[in-house]
């Protein structure tokens, strides 16, 4: 086999499993659907320069290259085995760039620099960053769309990022807020400028900048289409085929607007003709081409072949190590995954009111309107990613106070794939989150050392304030802070002793008085703890100090 084919094939042993998991497998929720298009365009750009890059020759690889190469492959193994998706993909991108450098030298990189830059637009962004950048965009898109539609007579209203049209409600989510589409439209704007090869830097730069407002307007059109279709044909129509069609309409509108903007800019900064063999500077004067640099000494055929074999072998070893070092799920987690969540929470929870022992006690009972429901992984995976089960119930106190219980369980909790904190999920749902405060619940009335670590916060929509208390378990250990959780997850993964499972229990009430809501949640948690058997208590509350001492 030719060495020119050996290195790309060896690199594909890394790329295919990673890209498959990202685009179609475990990490599907992190992709936005346009990454395959961007990567395909990048591959076409490299292929388009195949004749030019063939002029490049392998260069002698110094210590800097080999150090970068080793760190890159170690990063891939760490990212692949411990499920750091961004480290894995960046290492994959850098390894491809280094393969090009080793095979075609600086000449090959110079010819294909735009393709490597273009690939970076496909990288997944951190979810917290997406939320922070998208929140104002969602509100702006919602405001403009409702203003336009109400102006033409549609019965629309807006509450934050929730649009009401007739009897229907639509949430303007991240996909409709423009951030991801801004990235792809920015990438397409740069691609358009690169292929058009305009001689004016002002024209190229403004085309790239105009991709942002163009994307915003296109997203407004997308939301308006969904609102109008939902109003006339119902929610099922708006969330079905038309939802995807509106995404296509977004790009069609954006491309038309980009073409119009380019035509207008062309009237101000038209392309100038240049003489053959020369290029034009920003003032339109001919500039002689740069002198050809002196050729870099290249290795001999034998050493080049040996080097190619070494690089290919390194790629194969990295692919094998990334696969083999992936930790499995612990036996305890596999056993606990077989226990339905509904069996852990009683249908009735006796209250702990003071009174004679012989007197009948009242109890928290299920709300007859809001029934419990367990969502298996195949139904809830898109919404909860790593969660295998989700239990949702509403309990009613004899006084009439309601407490909503939501429990999410995932059998595999790695650093990359783990339970989502409510302060993140609520922001994604359009809520305003405030007063996020770590705290504790003294469930047994003992000293503070026996308390359960919790987090309290307030999530609010207009006219819907919702105080929340939640706690998390990693295996059977309560999570006290985020840093210690990630450290335990990383150690469990690197030691290959098996990944633990995770449980998140969330209590919430609808109450304008946050302190009163949190007090009711604490009352419910104490009553729940007293009603659980020791095995149930361990699964729901974790190994608290007094439980460990009792065992």
Automatic annotation (TrEMBL):
Annotated segments matching region Disordered: 280-302
Membrane disposition: Multi-pass membrane protein
Compartment(s): Cell membrane
Main localisation: membrane
Record InterPro entries: EpsH-like (IPR013426), Exo/Archaeosortase_dom (IPR026392), Exosortase (IPR019127), Methanolan_biosynth_EpsI (IPR014263)
Lineage: Bacteria, Pseudomonadati, Pseudomonadota, Betaproteobacteria, Burkholderiales
Name by which UniProt lists this protein: Exosortase B
Residue span, Methanolan biosynthesis EpsI domain: 309-534
GO aspect biological process, one term: proteolysis
Keyword terms of this UniProt record: Cell membrane, Hydrolase, Membrane, Protease, Transmembrane, Transmembrane helix
Pfam families recorded: DUF3485 (PF11984), Exosortase_EpsH (PF09721)
